[in-house]
């Protein structure tokens, strides 16, 4: 009977040694994976740091460009207003020419009679009207 118990103990010790060898190989694999994971986490951390730096640089660039664009817009608004005034006055002048109130060059046709002197030039009533229209356009812009 002692021999049977000894053989059983030897078999159990053999199984335990085999299990320990298998467990040891699995632990080695796990440690290697853990080292790879630590390397991967370090690389990810570096990438996040670089991305954060890039985002900060992008914010700074965006703020600088915003200031530059605001300055350009401030400069362009008066020019656009002036262009609007010029366009309106040109349209008013074109309308008058079409209506015959202000002929090109400030004179009517050369074929008109000389007794119609008051029709040959721009009437004095039209001049203040034009000035009033220009003032109204300027006030509307401001």
TrEMBL record:
Residues 111-131 have a biased composition (Acidic residues). Residues 96-131 are annotated as: Disordered. The keyword Membrane applies. Residues 31-100 form the DUF6468 domain. Coiled coil: none annotated. The chain crosses the membrane at residues 6-23. Pfam families: DUF6468 (PF20072). The keyword Hydrolase does not apply. Keywords: Membrane, Transmembrane, Transmembrane helix. This is DUF6468 domain-containing protein.
